[in-house]
Design a protein that fits this description.
Helix content is 29%, strand content 43%. It has an eight-stranded mixed sheet with strand order 1-7-6-5-4-3-2-8. The protein has three helices and eight strands; from the N terminus they run E-H-E-E-E-E-E-E-H-E-H. The protein is α+β, with helices and mostly antiparallel strands.
């Protein structure tokens, strides 16, 4: 079994952090240090999926988890699909004035295609990356694309209404 935990503080309000973590980072620097990030679903409810990703150089490991519970800004996740036989995580978000404390704990059990000692070495060097600004870039682009689609839809509707 491989375990990992990290506590971080973000310089944003709790609602802002929770909303921003619903978008994947636009870009992350590739380095020798393994970077772990997760993307929350649009609705934090049991059964919703959380996407996880570790990037170590040009190699990546991806998996998904299913939220088993969400109470008091604490999300508990179990493995849905990935290179492990078992996985659990908890993500707790606590408002601390103008900042948000993020408490993350991971437990990996059994590996299907990665030797445990190799994975343990990766996790021992890993950092969770929240990449708030990069996620905000993703959100801005997604909102701009959606606005463009709506504008085009209205223009098409307007053209069809005035044709003939």
């Amino acid at each position: 079994m491989v375990q990992f935990s990290q506590t971080s503080w973000q310089e944003f309000s709790l609602p802002n952090v929770l909303e921003t973590l619903r978008y994947a980072p636009m870009n992350l620097a590739i380095s020798k240090t393994p970077l772990l990030h997760y993307t929350l679903p649009s609705e934090l409810a049991p059964g919703a999926r959380v996407n996880y990703h570790i990037q170590c150089g040009f190699k990546s490991i991806k998996w998904t988890g299913t939220i088993s519970s969400f109470t008091d800004n604490k999300v508990t996740v179990r493995l849905a699909d990935g290179p492990f036989r078992g996985f659990t995580a908890s993500h707790q978000f606590v408002s601390e004035g103008n900042m948000t404390a993020c408490y993350d704990e991971f437990s990996f059990q059994g590996f299907t295609n990665i030797p445990e000692e190799v994975f343990a070495g990766i996790i021992a060097r890993a950092n969770i990356v929240y990449a708030i600004y990069s996620r905000k870039d993703t959100r801005d682009i997604m909102l701009a694309v959606e606005a463009q689609k709506k504008t085009q839809s209205f223009e098409t509707l307007d053209e069809s209404a005035t044709a003939g």
